Amino acid sequence: MPYEEIKAVILEVNEQVLTESMVQNLIKQMPEQEQLNTLADMKDDYDDLAEAEQFVVVELRKSQTFSQLLQIILLVGNFMNSGSRNGNAFGFPISYLCKLRDTKSADLKQTLLHFLANECQEQHPKVMGFVDELVHVEKASRVSAETLQKNIEQMGRQIKTLEKDLETFPPPQTDKDLFTEK
Q1: Phi and psi (nearest 5°) for 74?
Q2: How do residues 77-133 score in pLDDT, each as one tens digit?
Q3: What distance in Å separates the CA atoms of residue 86 and residue 78, rounded to the nearest whole number?
Q4: pTM of the full predicted structure?
Q5: Which of 41, 92, 164, 173 can bridge 96 by disulfide, Cβ–Cβ 3.0-4.6 Å?
Q6: Is 111 in a helix, a strand, or coil?
Q7: Which residue from 41, 61, 48, 26 is spatially nearest to 136, judged by alpha carbons?
């Protein structure tokens, strides 16, 4: 069930859809308090993001094929966990994506990531085009936070050097010396 439908069912308190097991499952899927606190702290951070980062976030949210890929991953996860308490999940932590390459088949010949790629290629070829919708995400991922921090520090040093140079710049030699004014 898409997020918007779940939201509507909850807001309408639609008891025909909102069963006790569904409520328990939703509660189980809620982020831990630490994650909620982190999200609350980051609530206003979107406005603090650079324009390029905001653009990437919007690009991710608008991508239909990426959304479909996440739905397929959830479906496969629910299938793998069927019969357990995690078998009817409405979502998963984003960190779960990192586990796709570490989860292997019973014969250890294939990872879950490879299985998903094969299934998408055969059954959902349009989903394989999600990369084309997220061109800016790839470019943004190439820039490390460490590199950005070093560049900002270097610019700060250069600004201080310029300020020092301006302070020690010699005064005009004559009335006709207009170098500092232009």
Answers
A1: -65, -45
A2: 888 888 887 777 778 888 888 889 888 888 888 999 999 999 999 999 999 988 888
A3: 7
A4: 0.57
A5: 92
A6: strand
A7: 61
